[in-house]
Amino acid sequence: MEPVVANSIPLSPPALDRVLIFDTTLRDGEQSPGATLNGEEKLTIARQLARLGADIIEAGFPFASPGDFEAVQKIAEEVGTEAGPTICGLARATRRDIETAAQALAPAAKGRIHTFIATSDIHMQYKLRKTRAEVLATVAEMVALAASLIPDVEFSPEDAGRSDPEFLYQVLETAIRAGAKTVNIPDTVGYTMPEEFGRIIRGIRENVLNASDAVISVHGHDDLGVAVANFLEAIKNGARQVECTINGIGERAGNASLEEIVMALHVRRPYFNPYFGLPVESEKPLTNIVTPEIYRTSRMVSNLTGMLVQPNKAIVGANAFSHESGIHQDGVLKHRQTYEIMDAQTIGLQTNSIVLGKLSGRNAFRTRLQELGFELSEQELNKAFVRFKELADKKKEISDLDLEAIVNDEIRQIPELFRLERVQVSCGDREIPTATVTVLTPAGEELTDAAVGTGPVDAVYEAINRLVQVPNRLIEYSVQSVTAGIDAIGEVTIRLYHQGLGKTFSGHAANTDIIVASANAYVNALNRLYFALSSEPASASQREAATQKV
Ligand code: KIV
Ligand code: ZN
C-alpha cells in the first residue's frame, strides 16, 4: 500500500513508515532552570538514550561554552558509533557557530548540524533586526556552509508557529535547496493548537516545491499543555521526525515528552497505522524506541537533572499505573484491561524485582550494572561497591531501582569541590535542633562547625552555610523514597538560587538516612554553584552565546 497521510498527498522519498525520534533532552531539556548537567552526566544520559533507541541525540550547543563543546565532542566520540545514533549539535545561523559545531561533531560516525534562525515577524523585527530578504539570504548561505562541512544538515525556522506561512514556505524551499535534509518546524512559544499545527505541516507539504526532498520534523513547547497533541496531529499530516525530551523537561513549561508520544503511537497503533500507509492491524512498531527502557531513562534524567517527575505525569509518573479507588481496584483484579490501557512492563516498570543481596559479590554487582547500562571505571565501581555493601547491611533486598539510585548518586557528586565528611544532629520534641558538620574544602582543609535551626535539616544547612560561605537561597526541598518499605533509600532533591548569577542550581543525593542525603544534596548543589562561579564563560562572544535563549 502506498503511504498516504490525511490530506491524501502521497509521501514521496524520503517518506518513512515510522517516526524518527530526535531526543533533545541534553540541549533543549537542559535549558530548564536548574537542570544544568556536567559532562559526565551528559555522557551517562547519552549512553542511555542510545540504549533507548533514539535515532538522533541533540547533544548540546557547542558554541555556547567550552563545557558544551567538550560534552558534544565526547558524546560524538563515545556514543556516535557506526551502529549508534546520529549525534547532533545546535548552531545559530552564523559562521562561527556552524564551524564550531562541525568541529565538535567530527568524531561521530553520523553527525548532524542543526542550524536555525527566526522567521516570525516579531522575532525578525525585535530580536534579529533583519528584513525578510536578509533572513532568506542568511538561510541560503549558512545552510550551504553547514552542508559543506557535514552532509546531514537540519534547518529550523524558529517561531515557525507564528511565522507568515508564505514566507515560511520560501524559507524552507531555500533551506532544502541549500542542502538541508531535515526541516524542523518549531512551535517555539507553545502557542499553536493541534489542528492548526497539523495544517501548517500539510501546508508545507502542499506548497514547498521540494518538500519531498527533506524529512519534515516538529519541535514544540508545552506552554498551553498541547505539545504532544500538536505532534500527533503533525504526524497524521506527514511529519516523520519528532523532537522531544525525556519527562518533557525543557524551557518554561517544557518540551513535548518523548515517552508520551512514543506510547501514544505504540498503544494506539491501529489508529495511526493508516497514516503510515500500513494496514490497521499491522503490528510493525511506529518508532525504533525500545519501550522497556523508558522508565529507567526517565528515572536517570530525573535524578541527574534534579527535575522531579510529577506523580500524575502520564506514562512515567509514580501514580501512572496505580489504582486507588475501590471500584478501579476491583475492576483491575477481575480483568486488568478494565482500567489499564497499557502494561507497566511495556515501559520497563517491574515491581519487586529483587536482584542482589548482602552476599552478592563484586562480579554480580558489576554484571548487573553493565546490564543496566552503566559503564563505570574501576575507581567508580569500587566506590559504588562500597556504597552497595553499606546499603546491603541496612536493607535485605536490593532492587534495580536501588542500584540505579546508588550509581546516579555517585555520578551526581561531580564536581566534588566540597565534600561532606561527617554530619550529626540532635533533635526531638523538647530539643533545639542542632547540627554539627565537617566538610573537606577544595584545598583539602577539614572544617567543622555547628548551628541550630528550625528543624534538623535546617540546622544542617545552616552549619554547611557557615563553612562553605556561598550565599544562596534554598527554593525547593523534597524527599522521595526509591522503593516501598521502612528501609527504603530516600532521595533528596533540592534547588537553590544565586542572586548574582540569576540562576538556579539543583542538588540530589540518595541514602537510607535522609539527614545524610539532605546534607549531601545541599553540598552537591553548592558544588555546582561554586563551579559556575569559578568558571564563567571566558570570552565576550561565548558569554553572549551562553546567555542566548534558543
Ligand atoms: O524552541 C525552539 O524554537 C528551538 C529551536 C532552536 C529549534 O529550540
Ligand atoms: Zn525549543
What is the topology?
Blueprint: E1 20-23, H1 39-52, E2 56-60, H2 66-78, E3 86-92, H3 95-105, E4 111-118, H4 121-128, H5 132-149, E5 153-158, H6 165-178, E6 182-187, H7 194-207, E7 215-220, H8 227-236, E8 241-244, H9 258-267, H10 269-272, H11 294-305, H12 326-334, E9 354-357, H13 362-371, H14 378-394, E10 397-399, H15 400-412, E11 419-426, E12 434-440, E13 446-452, H16 456-468, E14 473-481, E15 490-498, E16 503-511, H17 514-534, H18 540-547
Parallel strand pairs: 1-2, 1-8, 2-3, 3-4, 4-5, 5-6, 6-7, 7-8
Antiparallel strand pairs: 9-10, 11-12, 12-13, 14-15, 15-16
3-methyl-2-oxobutanoic acid (KIV) binds at residues 28, 116, 156, 158, 186, 188, 219, 221, 550.
Concise synopsis of the structure shown:
With 550 residues, this protein is an alpha/beta fold. It has 3 domains: 20-305, TIM Barrel; 354-410; 419-534, Alpha-isopropylmalate synthase LeuA, regulatory domain (Double Stranded RNA Binding Domain), CATH 3.30.160.270. The chain contains 18 helices and 16 strands.
Could you characterize the architecture of this molecule?
By secondary structure, the protein is α/β, with parallel strands linked by helices. It has helices at about 40-50, 65-80, 95-105, 120-130, 130-150, 165-180, 195-205, 225-235, 260-265, 270, 295-305, 325-335, 360-370, 380-395, 400-410, 455-470, 515-535, 540-545, and strands at about 20-25, 55-60, 85-90, 110-120, 155-160, 180-185, 215-220, 240-245, 355, 395-400, 420-425, 435-440, 445-450, 475-480, 490-500, 505-510. The protein folds into three domains: about 20-305, TIM Barrel (Alpha-Beta Barrel); about 355-410; about 420-535, Alpha-isopropylmalate synthase LeuA, regulatory domain (Double Stranded RNA Binding Domain, 2-Layer Sandwich), CATH 3.30.160.270. Helix content is about 40%, strand content about 20%. Helix 8 links the parallel strand 7 and strand 8. The longest helix is centred in the last third of the chain and has 21 residues, at about 515-535. It is globular, with a radius of gyration of 25 Å. The model is unreliable at about 540-545 (pLDDT under 50). The chain binds 3-methyl-2-oxobutanoic acid and zinc ion.
